[in-house]
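Data card: per-record layout.
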Amino acid sequence: MKPDYTEPYPQQRQQLDRRKATSIWGSLRFGGRRQSARREEEGEDIYVDQPARHVTLLVSMILGCSILDALLTLLYLEQGGSEANPFMAVAIDAGQVWFVTLKMLLTVIGAMMLAIHQNFRLGLRGLYGIALIYVALLLYHGLLWLKPF
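The structure for this 149-residue chain is written out next.
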């Protein structure tokens, strides 16, 4: 069967180009292959579908350090120590489950927000900063175990 070329062309879509209007909500969806800017004119401040490998490693490191920090804090409290962060001290007073839940929830949300903003000026710097702070915090926990309290 031959196509009928006598009919006019169908109307073209009048939708906006989805690549021009990126948003944080588009980055929260699952799937997609976009890991970086595709064109030079897109600039640095863009959202992508998947985080870069080093961002995934940083987020994993931050979450692992947060779990260790919570565990070491609870062990330190059992030995008679006290929580230095007043906000977390209130959570500990509510119970260990509340403390760990709140700590992990805040860490996961913060790390995810920074990972989503990996291509923005403060996003990647924030991830590196938090990773360094957690390393310093774990070193501090180590010092607490070396000296008697």
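Known properties of this structure: The CA atoms of residues 85 and 91 lie 10 Å apart. Residues 53-146 form one domain.

See the next section for split statistics.
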